[in-house]
From TrEMBL:
It comes from Actinomadura syzygii. The modification 4-aspartylphosphate is found at residue 52. The keyword Oxidoreductase does not apply. CDD domains: LuxR_C_like, REC_NarL-like. This is Response regulator transcription factor.
Length: 223
């Protein structure tokens, strides 16, 4: 794939450049801030951008804003966002911006080379890839009796967690060692328990993941 990187840590940026080159990907640009990334994409959109959430000048959300702008202007470009911390608002914004070709990983995941490269491949293919640790922490934070997620069985929580990571029903079935029809039953049960059986306007999978993140989608007309 043709990839562009935006990361203000020179050490991490150069390490990613070398890793991607060794894997046969073409690194078209490697920059240190969001504005430089937008300029590079405008000059020739890549297949995927990998961008840090916090970059100069304020180190708050420059990378995220660049990522959302890329999704708006170049929807065919995959976006894989890296973050130092679990920041569910950023993950929710990415999901609601577009449910395909998008990913959110903790920076620690980059050290797990196979997992990072798998996420990159999934995003480049138009899929989704959300860090399993982010999903685990968010699901663990729910447990109150009036919390809709508390209605889910342990297996349904496993399925929802895999959905939040961006896995398809087929890949969930393979990872949990169950049939695809069993996964489909669990998914339908999740929709029922989260009151999404008759939801319109957004993919029900996206809405289920947003419930996991504790976020609501922006106002939008029904399909």
């Amino acid at each position: 794939m043709r990839v562009m990187l935006a990361e203000d840590s020179t050490l991490l940026r150069e390490g990613l450049v070398r890793l991607l080159a060794e894997e046969g990907h073409a690194v078209a640009a490697a920059v240190g801030d969001g504005d430089a990334l937008l300029a590079a994409v405008a000059a020739g959109p890549p297949d995927v951008v990998v961008v840090d959430v916090r970059m100069p000048p304020t180190h708050t959300d420059e990378g995220l804003r660049a990522a959302l702008e890329i999704r708006r202007r170049w929807p065919d470009v995959g976006v894989l966002v890296l973050s130092q911390y679990v920041e569910k608002r950023y993950a929710a914004e990415l999901i609601t911006a577009d449910s395909g070709g998008v990913g959110y990983l903790l920076k620690d995941r980059v050290a797990q080379v196979d997992e990072f490269l798998d996420a990159l491949d999934r995003v480049g293919a138009g899929g989704a890839a959300f860090d399993p640790e982010v999903v685990r922490r968010l699901l663990a934070a729910h447990g109150a009796r009036d919390d809709p997620l508390a209605r889910l069985t342990p297996r349904e929580r496993d399925v929802l967690g895999a959905m939040a990571q961006g896995h398809t029903n087929a890949s969930i079935a393979a990872s949990l060692h169950v049939s695809q029809s069993a996964v489909e039953k669990h998914v339908n049960a999740i929709f029922d328990k989260l009151d999404l059986s008759h939801a319109t306007g957004y993919s029900r999978r996206v809405l289920a993941v947003l419930r996991c993140l504790g976020s609501e989608p922006p106002a939008r007309e029904s399909d």
